[in-house]
Amino acid sequence: MSARHITLLTQADCALCEHAKTVLAKVGADHELAVTEIDLADEEGRRLGAEAGVLFAPGIFLDGRPFSYGRLSERRLRRALKAAP
Which whole number is the average pLDDT over 29-47? Predict the structure, then answer.
């Protein structure tokens, strides 16, 4: 099984971003994840956030599709990774 791609939109001094990184590290122990971190202040980050309707950091994309923003739910992420082919 190939790695699942996670894009993490972050910003400086963001406690929820740090929480998301912790969750991704825990989930990454059980699932092969390729995580790309993009700052919301960068041009690409602003574009992705606007297109996906990310209201605040962190924004999470799973395999290129918007997954969530704000506090990342470990349970929801694990369910999505288990359910998807």
Answer: 95
Which of 3.40.30.10, 3.40.440.10, 3.90.550.10, 3.40.50.970 would CATH assign to domain 4-80? 3.40.30.10
Q: What is the pTM of this model?
A: 0.91
Distances (CA, A) of 14 to 11, 30, 57, 70: 6, 25, 7, 10
Task: With beta carbons less than 8 A apart as the criterion, state whether 59 and 49 touch.
Answer: yes
Contact 24, 17 (CB under 8 A): no
Total residue count of the chain as it appears in this document: 85
Whether the CB-CB separation of 61 and 6 falls below 8 Å is answered with yes
